[in-house]
């Protein structure tokens, strides 16, 4: 196993993907970038810590430590936009969510470098995901839960404040309706805002693997990060972002997410 790729194997019918929690950037790539902080700005900060309880529930976790600014393993490798007509970032992003350039002029990766990055990081990450799904699917249906977070306010990507829980199943395609309903109900208990298939309907991972007819039910959870850390106040800068992870502040969200993952496991087991 590569040192940038972490796989924890569990026995429950649940695989959790952690595609955007990494912050590692090879020195040769970072030297071409405008700022190390900008290059890490859009990470799903602390999501791996937020879900670390899942190993005790028997879940399998697959995580890449490589920054999404190097390669985004949740984007279509062909380059096709997941959200046509809407602002989004690509397989090897060249700008932040806020539109700031990630590379110095003329230093952006070309097609050959993008292909090399895909072979080095994207393909092994997805091979690991596929391997774990295949391992667990031998015994029946399995849930793939893709875990994400984002700042509550990103005007370039969406209007206003994002709901706390953003559940995506690509308009009912990637998993059974019963699973989506169970996840929605588990979130609703929190009393916080939620939406199903709003701004975030599920990235490439959810759409690629989610095939209920083959016993893989994929669902994405995009959290507004205010649920477990402080959102930046005013202009986002190195002085206020990322906010530190504070266990006491995060604990209520962890309880909500434990309920969500319990619902995922119960759904899969009910189908076996």
Describe this structure in words.
The structure is a single chain. This protein is an alpha/beta fold and 272 residues long. Helices cover 30% and strands 14% of the residues. The protein has helices at 27-30, 36-40, 47-50, 111-137, 177-188, 204-209, 247-270; strands at 5-8, 14-18, 60-64, 142-150, 165-168, 194-196, 216-224. Helix 5 runs antiparallel to helix 7.
Distance between the termini: 31 Å
Beta-strand portion reads 5-15%
Mean pLDDT: 96
Gross geometry: globular
Percent range of helical residues: 25-40%
Largest sheet: 7 strands, mixed
| Strands, total number | 7
Structural class by secondary-structure content = alpha/beta
Number of helices: 7
> Spans of 5+ residues with little confidence (pLDDT < 50)?
none
Gyration radius from CA atoms, angstroms: 18 Å
What key attributes describe this structure?
272 residues; alpha/beta; 7 helices; seven-stranded mixed beta sheet; 7 strands; single chain
């Amino acid at each position: 196993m590569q040192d940038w790729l972490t796989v924890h194997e569990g026995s429950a019918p649940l695989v959790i993907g952690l595609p955007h929690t990494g912050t590692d950037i090879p020195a040769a790539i970072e030297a071409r970038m405008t700022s190390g902080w900008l290059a890490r700005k859009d990470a799903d900060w602390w999501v791996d810590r937020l879900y670390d309880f899942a190993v005790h529930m028997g879940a399998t976790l697959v995580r890449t430590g490589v920054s999404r600014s190097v390669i985004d393993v949740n984007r279509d490798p062909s380059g096709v936009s997941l959200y046509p007509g809407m602002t989004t970032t690509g397989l090897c992003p060249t700008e932040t969510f806020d539109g700031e350039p990630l590379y110095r002029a003329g230093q952006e990766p070309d097609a050959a470098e993008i292909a090399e990055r895909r072979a080095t990081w994207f393909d092994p990450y997805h091979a690991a995901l596929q391997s774990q799904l295949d391992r667990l699917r031998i015994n029946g249906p399995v849930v793939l839960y893709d875990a994400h977070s984002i700042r509550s306010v990103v005007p370039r990507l969406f209007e206003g404040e994002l709901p706390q829980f953003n559940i995506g199943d690509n308009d009912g395609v990637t998993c059974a309706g019963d699973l989506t309903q169970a996840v929605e109900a588990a979130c609703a208990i929190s009393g916080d805002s939620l939406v199903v298939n709003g701004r975030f309907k599920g990235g490439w991972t959810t759409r690629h693997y989610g095939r209920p007819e083959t016993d893989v039910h994929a669902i994405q959870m995009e959290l507004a990060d205010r649920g477990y850390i402080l959102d930046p106040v005013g202009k986002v800068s190195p002085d206020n972002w990322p906010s530190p992870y504070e266990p006491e502040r995060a604990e209520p969200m962890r309880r909500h997410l434990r309920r969500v993952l319990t619902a995922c496991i119960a759904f899969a087991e009910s189908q076996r």
